[in-house]
Amino acid sequence: MRRRAFLVTGIVLVAVVLAVALLSLFWTPFPAADTTGGRLEGPGAHHLLGTDKLGRDLLTRLMIGARIAVAVGAGAVALGALLGGAAGLLAAFANRWLDDSLAALLDILIAFPTLLLAMLVVAARGASLASAIVAIGLAMSAIVARLTRVLAKRVLAMDYVTAARTSGVSWPRIVWAHVLPNIWPTLAVNLALQFGLAVLAEASLSYLGLGPPPPNASWGRLLQEAQSTVLTAPVGAIAPGVLLVVLVVGVNLLADGLRDVADPTRRRHR
Amino acid sequence: MSLLSVSDLSILLKSGEGQPIVDRISFALEPGQRLGLIGESGSGKSLTTLAVTGLLPPGLRATGSVLLDGTQVIGARDRTLDRVRGHAAAVVFQEPSTALDPLMRLGKQIAEPLRRHRGLRGAALRSAVAAALDEVALPTRVAGAYPHEVSGGQRQRAAIAMALACRPKLLIADEPTTALDVTVQAEVLALLDRLAAAHDMALLFVSHDLAVIGKVTDEVLVLSQGRAVRTGPLAEVLSNPGDDYTRSLVASARRLDAALDLTPEVSDDSRGA
Ligand SMILES: Nc1ncnc2c1ncn2[C@@H]1O[C@H](COP(=O)(O)OP(=O)(O)OP(=O)(O)O)[C@@H](O)[C@H]1O
Ligand SMILES: [Mg+2]
């Protein structure tokens, strides 16, 4: 089946980036701050993908970039899911007045550009990996909250919830047994997509120089640094771009495949 | 003491706008007794049943008095009601597709109330689930199926098994057969009738169809636009409809009965009900 192929492709692409990110924790061809290579060397036996303007090994920098991309994606998704999920559930249970206020607040937060929010956070906390995660995670939590609120409300209006209430099941138990399992498939797919968006957002931040500081450069910064030399050393600009695309396309395919796995009513065979 | 005693129940919008949706209705149910609640769409039948268990949707409020198994439901806190619910009352709804959690296997859904109310675990729980399925004439293998993998009639049977699992004193059935086709409808009605009698349960049965109500109960309360327009034994209501709405209900029930009895050669005769 075509869907199956997409899912497998997604898993493979994401797994490759994950493996590279993990590997970079233990081993890179050169130390991150090593500048012993020649300036803007092309790909060769010594430096597999060549070097940058300062003589740093490009492969090393790409591997560290993968680690940063995965860390930001995972961190922002965790923050967004926890904060947004809690706020969304709260709104779904709140009385009319609180619910309306929360909904209005979320709409404002969502309308607020992520990059602008990120710049505010960076201005307040300084540029770092943690700042990027907090900024992107905060922006994401508004989107997750809005989605959670709508999904949870829909489940709460179902007869099986009323039937459970009639037979004396408590609210926390209903959230655990009925609401979370029923909103999870849609939420998980959305979170996977948000992971991709978070990676892109971090690349934009770094491109603007607001990401984690050197020498642990992210792909966004690599792109920005390679911009001026794209004609003489194209690999430096192409490689981070390709990796960015691989990861983002990978999580999107994965998200799509996940939809079918998580929801038994969409499975054809049992 | 009555199992359920409703007096002057009104349901209004919290905002206070407009007419009451349900306007000062009163009725009572003794243990084991049955009452049919009948009325056109939008007359307030479902809201009445929800008010009885204290589960009105947000935005609506009830006034008057509802005594369910000795507990005042109106104005009561959730905590108080959670203790009464389950033992006192359970519901079966109209749409079998929304009455069951689509992501939970049927066996698990039936096991939930058994676990909570009867404290069953492990093998005892599994055999209780099998017994519950057997009681509603479902094969044991249904326990492993998701709701979308069984038929509408089977889903409704599973919902009934769930409702009965707590051994409630009152079963509220809100148009439990409307979404089913006629033969399945008759089977489910017979099942409800048999189980209510077997467990000595009181039954509050909602329908907009006198012919259906006649299969399970002898007492009816006719609702029209939120008001109780008639109440009494079904036979009396049938022979002496009184108001216009009840008269039209009786006429349509007669037509339906006639249609079911008709032989092919007279089927185009309207019989002038
Ligand atoms: N949550 C709500 N908020 C405001 N009004 C409501 C709400 N739910 C129902 N109503 C109104 O209350 C009236 C009675 O609704 P109810 O569901 O009790 O009708 P019903 O007799 O069960 O009809 P049906 O036979 O179609 O199920 C309807 O006019 C409906 O518009
Ligand atoms: Mg109704």
Key structural traits:
heterodimer, A: 270 residues, mainly alpha, 74% helix, B: 273 residues, four-stranded antiparallel β-sheet, 10 strands, globular, binds magnesium ion, nucleotide-binding (chain B)
**Major β-sheet strand ordering of chain B:** 6-7-8-3-9-10
Radius of gyration of chain B: 19 Å
What does the largest sheet of chain B look like? 6 strands, mixed
Terminal residue distance of chain B: 42 Å
State the order of secondary-structure elements of chain B, H for helix, E for strand.
Answer: EEEHEEHEHHHHEHEHEEHH
The total strand number of chain B stands at: 10
Instruction: Give the CA-based shape of chain A.
Output: elongated
Number of helices of chain B: 10
Average pLDDT confidence of chain A is 86
Q: What does this protein look like?
A:
The complex is a heterodimer of chains A (270) and B (273). Chain A has one domain (2-25, 57-267): MetI-like fold. Chain A is built from 9 helices and no strands. Chain A has helices at 2-26, 58-93, 96-111, 114-125, 129-156, 159-166, 171-207, 219-226, 234-262. The longest helix of chain A is centred in the last third of the chain and has 37 residues, at 171-207. Chain A is elongated and about 75 Å long. The relative contact order of chain A is 0.16. The model of chain B is unreliable at 263-273 (pLDDT under 50). In chain B, helix 7 (182-198) links the parallel strand 7 and strand 8 (202-207). Chain B is globular, with a radius of gyration of 19 Å. Helix content of chain B is 40%, strand content 23%. Chain B is built from 10 helices and 10 strands. The chains are: A mainly alpha (270), B alpha/beta (273). Chains A and B meet through helix 6 and helix 7 of A and helix 2, strand 6, helix 4 and helix 6 of B. Residues 45-46, 174-175 of chain B line the site of magnesium ion.
